[in-house]
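Here is the promised in-class demo. Please do not try to memorize the tokens; focus on the logic of going from shape to residues.
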């Protein structure tokens, strides 16, 4: 049995690494938290990136940590998420060229500042919606799989029983499709174990959270952010689940 832990809406920590004076990326409190979780539980973590936010974009990201990123690529990787936070549902009605450009831009910068070893081709599109042209563009960028909110909505033009879905290989889209099981920032610490327990029977569990809730100046700051992350990972580990990247298991678990 497996689980994956991913984080959406990332970019702020990259700006802070660029503008700050950190000897190691893991001196940054956000990344230190994940390193501590990895060291304690063996968790692999994927950070899904915006291209730009608040006047900063990935072309500005320093490459001085490239070797450190590469040396930790066995447990920490990056992927394309969206060009920016706004507007919502950015690729729901998009044409091919826009999505291809945005995805390639993020991929190019990840390779530059972190290396190909750190780039994942399994993604979560911002708001989990994408037009058929957007999906074709993503596929042409090398994307092999997408995570969606199938428990709650149609995603990427597909609907599945999210309560039972593990991994589906969609031959028409030529994509592996995964169901997200829990968005941790939606729930208090006290509910985490109970929510995860509902999926104990599943072979694979996908768990995620969003970067912005880590920061105390965010309007919906979660003081228990690190405790919630650890509670989820601890529960999944104690249930005998092994932490994986989606590329590790897609073919094995797909139906």
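The designed amino acids, position by position:
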């Amino acid at each position: 049995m497996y689980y994956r832990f991913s984080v959406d809406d990332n970019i702020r920590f990259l700006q802070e690494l660029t503008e700050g004076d950190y000897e190691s990326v893991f001196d940054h409190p956000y990344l230190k938290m994940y390193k501590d979780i990895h060291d304690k539980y063996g968790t692999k973590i994927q950070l899904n990136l915006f291209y730009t936010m608040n006047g900063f974009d990935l072309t500005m990201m320093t490459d001085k940590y490239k070797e450190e990123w590469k040396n930790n690529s066995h447990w920490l990787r990056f992927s394309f998420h969206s060009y920016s936070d706004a507007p919502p549902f950015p690729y729901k009605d998009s044409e091919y060229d826009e999505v291809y450009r945005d995805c390639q831009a993020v991929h190019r910068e990840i390779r530059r500042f972190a290396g190909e070893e750190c780039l994942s081709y399994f993604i979560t599109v911002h708001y989990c919606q994408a037009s058929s042209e957007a999906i074709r563009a993503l596929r042409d960028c090398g994307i092999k799989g997408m995570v969606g909110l199938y428990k709650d909505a149609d995603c990427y033009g597909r609907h599945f029983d999210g309560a039972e879905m593990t991994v589906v290989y969609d031959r028409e889209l030529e994509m592996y499709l995964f169901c997200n099981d829990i968005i941790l920032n939606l729930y208090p610490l006290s509910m985490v174990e109970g929510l995860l327990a509902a999926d104990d029977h599943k072979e694979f569990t996908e768990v995620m959270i969003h970067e912005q809730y880590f920061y105390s100046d965010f309007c919906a700051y979660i003081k228990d952010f690190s405790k919630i992350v650890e509670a989820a990972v601890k529960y999944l580990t104690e249930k005998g689940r092994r932490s994986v990247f989606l590329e590790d298991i897609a073919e094995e678990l797909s139906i």
